[in-house]
Amino acid sequence: MSLSSYWLMPPRWSSCPQEDIASILDQAFGSADDTQNRTPGSDQHPAEGGVIALAVGPTDANYDFTPTILLLASPIPADTTPEQALTESAVALSDQVPGFRMLDDCPWPTTPESAQLRTGIYIQGRVPITACQWAWIHSDGTNDFLLTATATMTTPAFSNLNEDVLAIIMSLEVRNG
């Protein structure tokens, strides 16, 4: 069994085919190790977690940066409560992204249900980045997963893309496959 997703894409966005995600992440991060071995696969067992989906938006030509929304599933260890997993994921976001400044970490009032919304900023090289992450718990009946949908875009493009990102997130469904 695996997890799959469904989301609606606004006209300027596209959902990447599963078979292309690994190479896109490799280009973005330099090597698969930098993505913490989170590669998609149709035969992937859900207990392993991984990349579920990737959406790409219109490139910001001023910075040659393509906005993305990356949907990940991370298995929650048996000795960790879902609440702990949510809390630890906020700390991990701040720790794993050099220079990341968390601006907000608050309950998200709509779908996905029971999600936390984190917003923050950082600089990647000379590119100012705004990140929005939705984090929530999903169960496949046997295992619990921490799901994160992380949107990244240049800070100048945020005002032009935030409506698109919200539409995508609010249409997002994760299904047990």
Describe this structure in words.
The protein has 177 residues and is of the alpha+beta class. It has one domain: Protein Transport Mog1p, Chain A, CATH 3.40.1000. It is built from three helices and nine strands. A hairpin with a 2-residue loop joins strand 6 (116-124) and strand 7. The longest helix is centred in the C-terminal third of the chain and has 17 residues, at 155-171. 29% of the residues are buried. This is DUF1795 domain-containing protein.
Outline of this structure?
This protein is 25% helix and 37% strand. The chain is an alpha+beta fold.
Determine the structural class based on helices, strands and strand pairing: alpha+beta
CATH architecture group name = 3-Layer(aba) Sandwich
Largest sheet: 7 strands, antiparallel
CATH topology: Protein Transport Mog1p, Chain A
Indicate how many domains the architecture comprises: 1
Average predicted local confidence, pLDDT: 87
CATH superfamily: Mog1/PsbP, alpha/beta/alpha sandwich
Protein name: DUF1795 domain-containing protein
Secondary-structure map:
Blueprint: E1 3-6, E2 14-15, H1 18-29, E3 50-56, E4 68-75, H2 82-96, E5 101-107, E6 116-124, E7 127-139, E8 144-154, H3 155-171, E9 173-176
Antiparallel strand pairs: 1-9, 2-3, 3-4, 4-8, 5-6, 6-7, 7-8
Provide tags for this entry.
Protein Transport Mog1p, Chain A; seven-stranded antiparallel β-sheet; 9 strands; DUF1795 domain-containing protein
